[in-house]
Amino acid sequence: MVELKVISYNVHSCVGSDMNYSVDRIGQVLERQDPAVVCLQEIEANHSTQQTRVWSSVHSSHQPRELASSLALEHCHFAPAISSVASSRYREVHDCSDAKGGFGIATLSKYPILEVRRRTFHRFGRKTIRNALACLIALPNGAKVWVVNTHLGCHWGGEQFQQAKELARFIDSLGMSSETCGPEDVSGIILCGDFNSLPFFRSVKVMKSFGLIDTWGTKGLGPGCTFPADGKIPGLPRFCSRRRPVMRLDYIFVKSNDTCQEGRLLAKCAFVVNGEDNPVDLVASDHLPLCTTFEVWKIA
């Protein structure tokens, strides 16, 4: 049996709730948890010195690679949803020749990634394009697991619903097989991401309708809120703000392969990294990290 600790974390371009830019601070938050797999959202890889998003900072960093190196997670895949450059304080331009920064999602792994698949969702109106990244990870005991990373749109309603349906079809296309192994060789699928959705939204219900189990619902304690990390809600007076997040927007789902002859994938515990051990957790990003530990059994 292998314990697999997985974290989903929207890092807000490594700009914290205190508006300071720091890749190192994100790395410190993650390092204390010692994860085997990290799914990151809102992460950037700049090819020149620029500001990629309006909330971001001027830098020339490949954030996924820097974090993978600092965490000793040797296997890293970055999937940009868009290329972007901030042209002013309030405006940015996407997918043009001047845009030298990639913005999207990344998966970091301690264990080898055997196969990678990507899916770009259809653009909803004029909203920012979103995507998903699937990595087939080989564990030390011989078991294999698909880990899917995604970030749905921030506008509630039709945008999220459309993307959730496309995501479900993408996951369904993975099945429990791959180019390197058959349908009985994959222990299951783990889906991580910032869904920008409350638990009763249609986007979450779509995932459950495809047999994906919300690990917080079965193994978590408390409300599981991850946003805003510092409890401060924009637009509300300070006295209305809380010290704790008030929205549950981040999720880790699991679907075990009941026909797998190689192993089983079971959620053991789920928790939010809530700053009790270190207050840096509350300011490194505008989201808190969500963590689930799985047991992956190899059946001889």
TrEMBL record:
**A GO BP term, please?**
DNA repair
Q: Any idea which UniProt keywords this protein has? A: DNA damage, DNA repair, Hydrolase, Magnesium, Metal-binding, Nuclease, Nucleus
Q: Where in the cell is it found?
A: Nucleus, PML body
Q: Which SUPFAM superfamilies match?
A: DNase I-like (SSF56219)
The Swiss-Prot or TrEMBL record annotates one GO molecular function as: hydrolase activity
Q: Does the keyword Nucleus apply?
A: yes
Please indicate which superkingdom the organism of origin belongs to: Eukaryota
User: Which residues does the UniProt record annotate as the domain Endonuclease/exonuclease/phosphatase?
Assistant: 7-259
What this protein is called in its record is: Endonuclease/exonuclease/phosphatase domain-containing protein
Organism of origin: Odontella aurita
Biological classification of the source? Eukaryota, Sar, Stramenopiles, Ochrophyta, Bacillariophyta
